Amino acid sequence: MPLYAFDCVGCGLYEVWRSLAEYNSPSWCPACRGPGRRLYTPPGLVRTPSHVRQARTLEEKSANEPEVVQGPLPGRPLRPPGYTSPTWATPRRGRPGSPLSRL
Ligand SMILES: [Zn+2]
Fold it and tell me: pLDDT per residue over 1-38, tens digit each?
């Protein structure tokens, strides 16, 4: 629902939320109940920040056809080259018949 601006001769500016169907109906000042004259104002456009615009562009571009990556993505690798998991992180093998042996 848009916000319309009106001007009352006695009280000054005021704003009213109304439906598009009522865009041309008369408005009455909420203070003095006198007639208000509609003012035409520019729409409230907000500039999208550049990083948000770039992310949206990338998202739209890859929505139907994801980009094929040939090499590692830029940035710091999650694990440096030569990294080996610590012994406590490797899965253990249990004795035959125990639940761990099915891992
Ligand atoms: Zn008024």
Answer: 888 999 999 999 999 999 989 988 999 999 999 999 99
Place of tokens 């009522």: 22
Instruction: Give the distance (Å) from ligand 1 centre to CA of residue 35.
Output: 7
Please check whether residue 39 is in contact with residue 13, taking contact to mean a CB–CB distance below 8 angstroms. yes
Q: What's the pTM?
A: 0.43
- What token pair was written down for 99? 């639940």
Centroid of ligand 1 to alpha carbon of 19 (angstroms): 22
> How close is the Cα of 11 to the center of ligand 1, in Å?
4
